[in-house]
Structures are given as structure tokens and as C-alpha cells.
């Protein structure tokens, strides 16, 4: 049981990076990244790249850590651009002159006989476009413009609201001041201070 847990802990892992979606320009070359990791090493490791799960586009073998992969079979438009004698066990491929028909799912599959034929794979979804960034930028700029405009209007509205509230408050404060000063003036004209009037009121009653 202990050995079984150990085997799971050091299982084969295959990765295509942080994102599994890519965009390529029609007639360009596109790099399809893939790396694998295994803590217990590998022997006669086999890796294959598939297009849409069924079409094999690259098949390679790696004898051990000290050797680079040997080609078994490949699509004429695909080249191996990785390296396995370096630290990251890179088994990336380069797809030349992509066409719209090349859009789809690319699977990087690895099998390691040293790990009781452990297998693992990772997938990239490729989109092929006629023009690369122009359309996206226009849409983005429109969105940013609209959002920016709305935020600008909101800020302007908030500022106007503040100014209006400030004016109303000042006007109300002014009225209060006028009322206070006018009542003070009235008392002065009558010759009576508020306190004296209050003191004289009880005797009259």
C-alpha cells in the first residue's frame, strides 16, 4: 500500500501552460507548447500529438534524460522544437502555415513505461483568424469608450449633484443666518433682549 501511494505522489504530469486557448493568424507558424514532469524519471517515454483526438500529427520517443527525442512519424507541416535534455522536458511542436481548417483541439499525450505505463495528456484549443488584433481592438476600444463614457457621465452627475447640494445647503444656511440676525435686530429695535423679556414676563402675569 505504501508503494502505491508513493507511485501516485510522483505521477506523470503534462502541461500546456497557463492557458489552453490560442489564436493564430492564417498562413502563419504557431508554436504549440507542451512540457511533462515526472519525479522518478523516465525510460523509453513515448509522446504523441493529436489533432481533434484522432489524427496523429507527431509521434516521438525519448530513451532517457540524457537523450533528445527521436522521430517516429510526423505530419510534413509539423516540426519538433522542444528539448528533453534540459530541465523542463519540453516536447513542444511548431505547426507551419496554419489554415482555417487547422483550427481545433490539439492534444499532447505522454506515456512513461518507467511509471508502470502511466499516461497523461493536456489539450490546446486553437483558433485561426483572418486578421489578428484589429477587430478585437476595435471592439475593445468601443467597450472601453462606452464604459469610460458612462463612468465619466456618472462622475459628472455626482459632481453636479454635490455642487447642487452644496448650493442648496449654503442657501439654507444663509436663510438660517438671516432669520437669526433679523430676530436679533427685532429684539434690538424693541429695546428688549430675549432674556430681559423673559424675566419681565412673569410679573406682568
From TrEMBL:
<keyword id="KW-1015">Disulfide bond</keyword>
<dbReference type="GO" id="GO:0017080">
    <property type="term" value="F:sodium channel regulator activity"/>
</dbReference>
<feature type="compositionally biased region" description="Polar residues">
    <location>
        <begin position="180"/>
        <end position="190"/>
    </location>
</feature>
<protein>
    <submittedName>
        <fullName>SCN4B protein</fullName>
    </submittedName>
</protein>
<keyword id="KW-1133">Transmembrane helix</keyword>
<dbReference type="GO" id="GO:0044325">
    <property type="term" value="F:transmembrane transporter binding"/>
</dbReference>
<dbReference type="InterPro" id="IPR036179">
    <property type="entry name" value="Ig-like_dom_sf"/>
</dbReference>
<dbReference type="Pfam" id="PF07686">
    <property type="entry name" value="V-set"/>
</dbReference>
<dbReference type="GO" id="GO:0001518">
    <property type="term" value="C:voltage-gated sodium channel complex"/>
</dbReference>
<keyword id="KW-0812">Transmembrane</keyword>
<keyword id="KW-0325">Glycoprotein</keyword>
<dbReference type="InterPro" id="IPR013106">
    <property type="entry name" value="Ig_V-set"/>
</dbReference>
<dbReference type="GO" id="GO:0086002">
    <property type="term" value="P:cardiac muscle cell action potential involved in contraction"/>
</dbReference>
<keyword id="KW-0393">Immunoglobulin domain</keyword>
<feature type="transmembrane region" description="Helical">
    <location>
        <begin position="139"/>
        <end position="160"/>
    </location>
</feature>
<dbReference type="InterPro" id="IPR003599">
    <property type="entry name" value="Ig_sub"/>
</dbReference>
<feature type="domain" description="Ig-like">
    <location>
        <begin position="1"/>
        <end position="125"/>
    </location>
</feature>
<dbReference type="InterPro" id="IPR013783">
    <property type="entry name" value="Ig-like_fold"/>
</dbReference>
<dbReference type="InterPro" id="IPR007110">
    <property type="entry name" value="Ig-like_dom"/>
</dbReference>
<dbReference type="GO" id="GO:0060307">
    <property type="term" value="P:regulation of ventricular cardiac muscle cell membrane repolarization"/>
</dbReference>
<feature type="region of interest" description="Disordered">
    <location>
        <begin position="177"/>
        <end position="205"/>
    </location>
</feature>
<keyword id="KW-0732">Signal</keyword>
<dbReference type="InterPro" id="IPR000920">
    <property type="entry name" value="Myelin_P0-rel"/>
</dbReference>
<keyword id="KW-0472">Membrane</keyword>
Amino acid at each position: 500500500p505504501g508503494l502505491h501511494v508513493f507511485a501516485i505522489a510522483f505521477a506523470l504530469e503534462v502541461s500546456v501552460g497557463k492557458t489552453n486557448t490560442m489564436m493564430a493568424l492564417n498562413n502563419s507558424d504557431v508554436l504549440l507548447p507542451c512540457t511533462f514532469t515526472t519525479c522518478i524519471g523516465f525510460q523509453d517515454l513515448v509522446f504523441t500529438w493529436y489533432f481533434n483526438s484522432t489524427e496523429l500529427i507527431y509521434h516521438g520517443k525519448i530513451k532517457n534524460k540524457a537523450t533528445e527525442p527521436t522521430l517516429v512519424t510526423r505530419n510534413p507541416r509539423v516540426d519538433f522544437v522542444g528539448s528533453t535534455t534540459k530541465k523542463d522536458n519540453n516536447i513542444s511542436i511548431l505547426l507551419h502555415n496554419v489554415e482555417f481548417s487547422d483550427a481545433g483541439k490539439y492534444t499532447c499525450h505522454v506515456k512513461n513505461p518507467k511509471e508502470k505505463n502511466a499516461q497523461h495528456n493536456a489539450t490546446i484549443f486553437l483558433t485561426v483568424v483572418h486578421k489578428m488584433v484589429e477587430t478585437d481592438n476595435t471592439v475593445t476600444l468601443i467597450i472601453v469608450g462606452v464604459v469610460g463614457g458612462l463612468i465619466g457621465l456618472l462622475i459628472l452627475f455626482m459632481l453636479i449633484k454635490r455642487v447642487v447640494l452644496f448650493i442648496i445647503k449654503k442657501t439654507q444656511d444663509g436663510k438660517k443666518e438671516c432669520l437669526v440676525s433679523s430676530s436679533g435686530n427685532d429684539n434690538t429695535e424693541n429695546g428688549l433682549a430675549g432674556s430681559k423679556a423673559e424675566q419681565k414676563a412673569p410679573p406682568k402675569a
